[in-house]
Amino acid sequence: MVYFWLSIQTLIASLTHIIAKAVVKAIPPFTLTLLRAGIAGFVFGLIIYFSKYRKIRVENSDRMKFFILGILSVPLNQFAFILGIKYTTPANASLIYAMTPIFALIFSALFLKEKVNFYKVLGVILSFVGVGIVFAEHGLSLNMEYLKGNVIIMFGAMFWALYSILGKPMVVKYGAFYVTGVAMIIGSLIYLPIGLYDFVNLDFRSISFASYLGVVYLGVGTSIFGYFLWYYAIGKIEASKVVIFTNGQPIMTAILGMIIFGNPITLPFLIGGTLVVAGVLLVQLG
C-alpha cells in the first residue's frame, strides 16, 4: 500500500512543477512561498491543536532537530524551488530533483556513516554529468536565466534530500503527520519576515482566479498531502526506496509540460535525463 501512496505523491510532485511555473509568473517568488507555506502551516496548526497530536510531548533534545527541519522545509527547500522554477522549465526542475537519491546517498554517508561502494560512486558521477548536459543546453545563452534557475533548483534538491535524511528518525519517533506539520509550522514562521515585504506590496486584485487556485494546490496539495505522504513512506520503508520515486517526476513532468506549455523535449534533455536515471539506478543497485 505504501507504494501506491508513493505513486500518488509522485503525481502530486510532478504537477507541482507545472503549476508552480504558471503561478510564479503572476505572483513573485517571495510572496508565493509565503502563501504556500502559510496555508500549509495554518492548516497543520489547526489539525494538530484540535486533535490527539496536541498531547504529543517533544523531548528537549529533539527541539533543535524540529527547528532544523523547519528551516530546510520552507526558507531553504520551498523558496529555492519557487525562485528557481521562475527561471527554468518544469522539465528541467523535475530532472534536477531526480538527483535527490544522489544527494541522499552523500548525506547518508556524512551523517549516518553509511558505506559507499564503486557502483554508488559511478552513479553519482553519471548523474552529475547528466545534469551538466541539461545545464549546458541553455547555460551559454546571453541572459543565463536557465542556468541560474537550474543551479537554484539543484540547491533546493539538496535541501530536500537533507530534509528527508534528517527527518527519518523523527518520523519513526513522533509519526509522519506530526513531524511534517510541526516542521511546516516552524518553517512558515521563520520565513514570515522574509516574505512579508513583497506580500504587503503586492496588488492582489491583479491576480487571476486560476493563479489563486494554483496557490491553493501548492499549499494544500503539495505542502500538506505531498509532504505528509513523503514522510509517511519514509517512516514505513527504507529512505533509499522512497527517494527513488523522484525519478518518475522527470518523465511525468516533461509530458505534462509538453501538453500544457508546449515545452519541447530536446535531445540534450533526453541524454541528460537518461544519464541521471542510470546514475540513480546504479546507486540503488550498489
From TrEMBL:
InterPro entries: AA-Vitamin_Transporters (IPR050638), EamA_dom (IPR000620), EmrE-like (IPR037185). Residues 3-135, 148-283 form the EamA domain. The chain crosses the membrane at residues 30-50, 66-85, 91-112, 119-140, 146-163, 175-197, 209-230. It is found in: Cell membrane. Its main location: membrane. It is a multi-pass membrane protein. Keywords: Cell membrane, Membrane, Transmembrane, Transmembrane helix. One of its GO terms (cellular component) is plasma membrane. The keyword Transmembrane applies. It comes from the Bacteria. It holds the Pfam family EamA. PANTHER family: INNER MEMBRANE TRANSPORTER, S-ADENOSYLMETHIONINE_S-ADENOSYLHOMOCYSTEINE TRANSPORTER. This is Threonine/homoserine efflux transporter RhtA.
